[in-house]
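Usage

Read records sequentially. Each one opens with the input sequence:
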Amino acid sequence: MTPSYTLSPSTISPEGHGLHNSHFYLHRNCSSFFSNESSLLVKETLPFKPHEKRSTKRFLPILRLKNSELTHPFASVSSFAEAGGEEDRNEGIQIRKHQETVKSKEDDAPGMARAFDISSGTASAISILIAFAALSLPFFMKTLGQGLDLKTKFLSYVTLLFGFYMAWNIGANDVANAMGTSVGSGALTLRQAVLTAAILEFSGALLMGTHVTSTMQKGILVANVFQGKDTLLFAGLLSSLAAAGTWLQVASYYGWPVSTTHCIIGSMVGFGLVYGGPGAVFWSSLARVTSSWVISPLMGAMVSFLVYKFIRRFVYSAPNPGQAAAAAAPIAVFLGVTGISFAAFPLSEIFPLALAQALAGGAAGAFLVDRIIQKQLGHLLVKASSTQPEPKENATHSKNIGLLSDFAGPKGTQLEIVYGVFGYMQILSACFMSFAHGGNDVANAIGPLAAALSILHGGASGTDIVIPLDVLAWGGFGIVAGLMVWGYRVIATIGKKITELTPTRGFAAEFAAAAVVLVASKLGLPISATHTLVGAVMGVGFARGLNSVRVETVREIVVSWAVTIPAGAIFAVLYTWIFTKLLSYIL
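and closes with the structure output:
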């Protein structure tokens, strides 16, 4: 199993289990420590396994390496490092036997308890608390306290629950877009990723979530077809939430990363086609959506392939890889934060001022990363610059290395610095993506919810609907609840099951996916963030060789993409039929 970074202030043990002063502690047998990374890949059906309890508290700024599951403290670090070497077969067999023993002991534990290394009772208590909050909080919202009659209040309450269900499934599935690669590479532990994402997703939904939405989902349905059919439209909006949520729940259960936007689109298409006829659907828009199944992963794979190769060419083959990584980090963060800020954050409507705000955000992010690197890894940078003889052999060959050439990566202190630098960069980029995701994707649940509430309250005559602040917060709470209870499932697929990730690979995939989504959205190209990230992770795997990508996992994901829109449509037709029957008795 690939070891992971965790955040801990503790110091190292004599065997070198942990980190001292926030950096990797290297065992003295460095040649076996950084051996061939593909020799011990063990396929695991369970993405995360519990670790030994530690008495120390964990906090974000410090990285720590833990291998508490292994009988040998450095047995599987070979799957984490990127240098060459041979691994002892007997040691690999011993690891497999130990992991099988651990797995057999954990099969009886619930998935949430297993993923977060908590007791079954604690996991059950968290689930019950979330369920109680979801059922009780709507009674304290202004949406149910506006002097409405009992029938309207009941339907509003049910509508809020459907919106929560959709938001819950968005959190369970889409949180992997921001945190999957960071967990897979070890830059964050699962628990840290979920807690960080919970804060940022809710903040993004509340502060950045759109306050205005259209009754029809972004050009998928022709609004005139349903003019004057408020009851049917209300049933269709509820069915779209229920249908998309149902398919997302199925996909999340199996760990398939699918597009929540495509789920909603499929649901709306099914409803419009059956209850409004072929003329109710903008087929050109649907064609653009389906084309993104091909465009998104291909663009993500190509860009991540090139980014990873650039890292290996200009960082790994540099005379001093650690210094090269430390110098490149602020530049990459500046570009990434500026792009995300300009595309996703609510900046000024005046272009020069908005550009200045985005550049200021990028500069602040670059300065922050540079300070963190100098503080946490400064002593290693001094050590690496003072010990020049080790990398000289590679330096003589670096001039003749092409972009696509393959070669052994850095070792020792240099590798400590490189992984430390890219680990911090991953954490920062994951935080920005999580915040932006909360603001962007909450509309998939809140848009139909707000439209349905507007119909109930007699305000469906206009095309634009104002979303109350408490409804935005409700959607943010749903996303947080979903990622806490089921988010680990899709995180496991993105971070563990497609290909083995390290900080450099994870950053390459994350940076490439963000760049492709930002550029494509500005150019108006049909793109899916989920599909792009999956393609980016595959591209990093292909950069290491075709055998580094698990074909069976990719096959399952592609099939789930193809089934998403038809499944949403079928569920929507079924739910609409049920809801219209029920509403005929209620209204």
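Summary fields computed downstream for this record:
- Confidence is low (pLDDT under 50) at residues 1-95, 101-108, 389-399.
- Strands lie at 4-6, 19-20, 23-24, 64-66, 212-214, 464-466.
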